[in-house]
């Protein structure tokens, strides 16, 4: 059959661009359709960190690591409640795909290698020019390979042939045909209805919730896939960061000089616990949680590069004046005003103050060097914090390790592939660490492009 392209890729983020470049490398003619007016989606806005094991950068830094070790860590952290074959593929291909990306021209700073999650092995790789650099390098290769792109065009349907195979896309009245289609439309962080349905933890925070990525993260890939019979994997998964909700600024860590307590008046974590686990800990409290500190801490909270909008003395003063933070002359009054168990709060603080003196957090092992300070000088403050900054969504299309989209009948849908944040099969309740979204986007984007190109030859 005559067709317009061998492969059509929907979306031009890290996943879509990787798919397009690898499909072209397999000799396919490729079209990218992109809803935005420029290439890159959330991938361009992103840090672009890449979680990988066994890379040349790790070797340079003297880090011994392997795909086996990464797989064991990933699966254990997620209690095997993710698709093992898909995770295995990611682990196996993380290093070769990382090297592919560096071969294309993306630079990763060796000194930027870091422990990006809760594991002991540094696997977070930072590109020198963040996600923007990755997108620009991939887009330059797309152009070199003659891959066509249409911008400002939102795909709203898939074409199906008489045998039920996907054979193209629709944009309103227009359509384009292909031997295979790769869905790489990103997540649904910008779609409140889908958050409500598929990520209730994120939606539960009402006005406090905001998504840090592109407005085009509307979950179109899930909808297009579902209309073609695809199954959805996972629920209530993604990454949320904790915020006092003063403004829409991205901040990943709470300061060490405050404590966080639940309604029972108890601390429940090292307040500087990795952002990958803090939101989950808060969820388990089952009620509101508050950052508590005293006047001495507030006055000493100086602006710093990592915190301009939240934990800064003038900001905190202003928010207290506005009644957004509760301020009281005694801990009893503070507890009464926000509805915390007062006796327990005072005991918690008494214990914490002793720990500050000895320089050791005997309950949660927060390092003293993070600025632990006793809570002694009135007035006292309580700022509610919520896991409300949505970084990415982890529920999505079910795929197999070859990135074929799997139908509700448990069979691959012929001609349909998916990669990137639109995919759900490898994200569990615990984020593996910084780079755990971008890494799989590139890995599975590359796999999807190559497999779509091969399938297209056979169609
Ligand atoms: C500020 C920020 C920092 C981040 N930092 C990191 C990090 O350091 N490490 C990490 O692992 N993750 C990080 N993430 C998450 C990660 O960047 C994303 O999960 C990832 O980039 C998603 O890539 P993608 O290709 O799947 O989607 P995107 O990059 O969002 O690309 C999808 C594209 O599809 C287009 N599209 C959507 N619907 C349609 C349609 N119907 N028709 C045509 N086109 C459509 C969109 O316009 C978009 O351009 C961060 C995210 C943000 C926003």
Strand content: 15-25%
Unreliable stretches (pLDDT < 50, length at least 5) are none
Q: Supply Rg.
A: 24 Å
Number of helices: 15
Shape from CA axes?
elongated
Question: What is the number of beta strands?
Answer: 18
The SS-based structural class is alpha/beta
N/C terminus separation: 9 Å
CATH fold call of the largest domain: FAD/NAD(P)-binding domain
Count of distinct structural domains: 2
- CATH first level of the largest domain: which class? Alpha Beta
Q: Tell me about the biggest sheet?
A: 8 strands, mixed
Keywords, please?
459 residues; alpha/beta; FAD/NAD(P)-binding domain; Flavocytochrome C3, Chain A, domain 1; 2 domains; 8-stranded mixed sheet; 6-stranded mixed sheet; 15 helices; binds flavin-adenine dinucleotide
Write a brief caption for the model.
The chain is of the alpha/beta class and 459 residues long.
């Amino acid at each position: 059959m005559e067709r317009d392209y061998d492969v059509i890729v929907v979306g031009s983020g890290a996943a879509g661009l990787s798919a397009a470049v690898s499909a072209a490398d397999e000799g396919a003619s490729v079209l990218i359709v992109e809803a935005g007016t420029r290439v890159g989606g959330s991938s361009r806005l992103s840090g672009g960190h890449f979680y990988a094991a066994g890379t040349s950068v790790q070797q340079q830094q003297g880090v011994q690591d392997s795909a086996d070790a990464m797989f064991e860590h990933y699966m254990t952290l997620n209690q095997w409640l993710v698709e093992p074959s898909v995770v295995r593929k990611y682990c196996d291909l993380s290093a070769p795909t990382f090297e592919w990306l560096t071969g294309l021209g993306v630079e990763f700073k060796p000194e930027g290698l870091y422990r990006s999650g809760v594991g002991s092995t540094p696997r977070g790789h930072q590109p020198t020019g963040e996600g923007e650099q990755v997108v620009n390098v991939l887009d330059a290769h797309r152009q070199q390979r003659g891959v066509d792109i249409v911008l400002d065009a939102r795909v709203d349907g898939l074409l199906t042939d008489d045998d039920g195979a996907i054979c193209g896309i629709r944009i309103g009245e227009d359509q384009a045909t292909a031997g295979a289609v790769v869905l790489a439309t990103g997540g649904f962080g910008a779609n409140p209805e889908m958050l409500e349905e598929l990520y209730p933890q994120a939606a539960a925070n009402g006005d406090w919730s905001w998504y840090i990525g592109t407005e085009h993260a509307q979950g179109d890939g899930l909808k297009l896939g579902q209309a073609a019979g695809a199954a959805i994997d996972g629920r209530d998964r993604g990454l949320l960061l904790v915020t006092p909700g003063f403004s829409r600024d991205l901040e990943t860590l709470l300061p060490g000089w405050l404590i966080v307590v639940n309604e029972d008046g108890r601390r429940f974590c090292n307040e500087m616990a990795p952002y990958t686990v803090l939101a989950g800990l808060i969820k388990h409290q089952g009620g509101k949680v508050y950052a508590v500190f005293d006047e001495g801490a507030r006055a000493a909270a100086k602006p710093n590069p990592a915190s301009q909008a939240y934990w800064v003395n003038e900001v905190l003063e202003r928010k207290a004046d506005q009644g957004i933070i509760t301020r009281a002359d005694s801990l009893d009054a503070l507890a009464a005003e926000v509805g915390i168990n007062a006796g327990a709060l005072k005991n918690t603080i008494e214990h914490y103050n002793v720990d500050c003196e000895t320089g050791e957090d005997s309950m949660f092992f927060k390092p003293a060097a993070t600025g632990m300070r006793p809570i002694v000088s009135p007035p006292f403050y309580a700022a509610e914090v919520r896991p409300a900054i949505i970084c990415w969504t982890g529920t999505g299309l079910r795929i197999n390790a070859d990135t074929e989209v799997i139908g509700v009948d448990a069979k691959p849908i012929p001609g349909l592939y998916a990669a990137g944040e639109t995919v759900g099969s490898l994200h569990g309740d615990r984020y593996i660490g910084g780079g755990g979204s971008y890494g799989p986007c590139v890995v599975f984007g590359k796999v999807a492009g190559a497999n779509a190109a091969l399938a297209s030859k056979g169609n």
